[in-house]
Amino acid sequence: MHLPGGLRIPAAIAHPVRLLPLTFLALIFVGALALLLPFARNGSGSFELMPALFSSASAVTVTGLTTVDTATYWSPAGQGIILVLVELGGLGIIALATVLGLFIGGRLGLRTRMVAQADMHVVSLGEVRPLFRRVAVTMVFFQSVTAVFLTVRYRERYFDDLPTALWHGAFDAVMAFNNAGFSLNSDSIGRYAGDGLIILPISIAVFIGAIGFPVMAELFQGWRTPSRWTIHTRLTVWGSVLLLVVGALAFLALEWSNPDTLGGLSVGGKIVSGIEGGIMPRSGGLNSFDWGSVTPETLNIGVVMMFIGGGSASTAGGIKITTFLLLAYVIYAELRGDPDVTIGARSISSAVIRSALTIALLAVMLVSTATLALMLMTDVAFDDALFECTSAFGTVGLSTGVTANLPAKAQTLLIGLMFVGRVGTITAASAFVLRQRVPRYHLPEEQPIIG
Fold it and tell me: Beta strands 346-348 and 341-343: pairing type?
């Protein structure tokens, strides 16, 4: 694979499955170097590597976990760098390069299209070009609409001048659609708690961003005919709505009288925060209340929702809603004794089921191991350690407030979790296992005792 200037990428790393995580890794280091520049930080003190590296990794992986206060530690230029990194990470660096190439009339090579296909989870190579066009237009459209709504409200109630309101509106719109938890306020969006004209547009943008680009592309063409939707779109849309309703009702029931979260809000404010509580844990990261003050039951529900995440090929993380629901159908078919797993009028192949099981089990193993490692490195309690590790893996960005106080080795652990959570457990694992062999024979079968 050739680069401008006659440079050549070694064949060992030119495979799309390896090239994808390597490009994200390269962007993280480039972003860290940019954040180390003198103008990126407020104050005149010396620059530290870990805050820059952690913030860059969190931005590229569209997570939002921070070890420093974005509002005070970084200058407007540094905040702008973070915004750009979030945009690049949300779209995917390879997807962005491809879309730009399309807009300027560039020509796509087969390997470039394969890399893009791996990032966006497109079934057919022929679908890559039109999908990328829709991705770019969709991102600009939803972020612009959200920014306008927020800017108007910010200018009307919270800021005295239009430039400040516009900057906050644009920044929050980008973070919301990309499911990143960075904020220009030290309390995230806490100062807007209960304000439906702020919380609801942000929550809607988070929800749409977590649907996934392939689903949005299909909905653009046939949103009026749900009966014709693909199984993937049905699982993603109805599963996302179900998690929103269940999450919001559970959050309201558990936090309604909690004086540290919803107790002091009006009924309307509580409902608005309940909707937020049903959306943000799936990957949003912005919060109008302190997750360190919620009840243990709410914290555990948040862990489950962060682990499930959003739609495939979206700005959300987690194992993805389609993986979760597919495994539920597998359990249902097994309990019924059905030989095949069916959803609607379609059967699901064994290869897809194996992939879903692999993703889920790898994720459980990764989060469990990281939680144990974090507890061994620090004196963080189990609930907080599990919440923090799940938030990092799910690229959510919510925190109970322990991230900033973690030692460098623990922060490095979270960087690794965010990276794997963004590029995907299957992609990260497959990057080093690229050989595909067609078996020449099948061994005799045996059935070990299960259960």
Answer: antiparallel
Q: Each residue of 112-141: pLDDT tens digit?
A: 555 555 555 555 555 556 666 777 788 889
Question: Which residue is associated with the tokens 């919620």?
Answer: 294
- Ranking 6-10, 185-189, 409-413 by mean pLDDT, the lowest is 6-10
DSSP letter for each residue of 167-235: HHHHHHHHHHHTT----SSTTTTGGGTT-HHHHHHHHHHHHHHTT-HHHHHHHHHHTT-GGGS-HHHHH
Q: Are 426 and 351 in contact (CB under 8 A)?
A: no
SS3 category, 35: helix
The DSSP output letter for 445 is: P
Q: What is the pTM of this model?
A: 0.87
212: left (phi over 0), alpha (psi -120 to 50) or beta: left
Closest CA to 178 of 236, 139, 150: 139
User: Distance between terminal CA atoms of the chain?
Assistant: 49
Helix or strand run (H / E) with residue 347:
strand 346-348
Q: For residue 22, what pLDDT band results from cuts at 50, 70 and 90?
A: confident
pLDDT tens-digit map of 60-112: 999 999 999 999 999 999 999 999 999 988 877 656 544 444 444 444 555 55
**Ordered DSSP codes for 95-149:** HHHHHHHHHTT----HHHHHHHHHHHT-SSGGGHHHHHHHHHHHHHHHHHHHHHH
Provide the 3-class DSSP secondary structure of residue 44. Answer: coil
Nearby residues of 441 by Cβ (< 8 Å), 6 or more positions away:
none
CA angle 360, 363, 365 (to 5 degrees): 110
Residues 66, 57: Cα–Cα separation, whole Å: 10
Q: Please state, in angstroms and rounded to a whole number, the distance separating the CA atoms of residues 266 and 271.
A: 9
Three-class DSSP category at 69: coil
Amino acid at 281: P
Token pair recorded at residue 209: 């961003």
Give residues with Cβ within 8 angstroms of 171, minimum separation 6: 79, 83, 182, 183, 184
With a CB cutoff of 8 Å and minimum separation 6, the contacts of 125 are 110, 113, 114, 117
Among candidates 172, 154, 173, 175, which has minimal Cα distance to 164? 154
Q: Please list, in sequence order, all residues whose beta carbon lies within 8 angstroms of the beta carbon of residue 241, skipping any fewer than 6 positions away.
A: none
The values of phi and psi at residue 2, to 5°, are -100, 145
Residues 6+ apart with CB under 8 A from 284: 176, 179, 181, 202, 203, 206, 210, 396, 397, 398
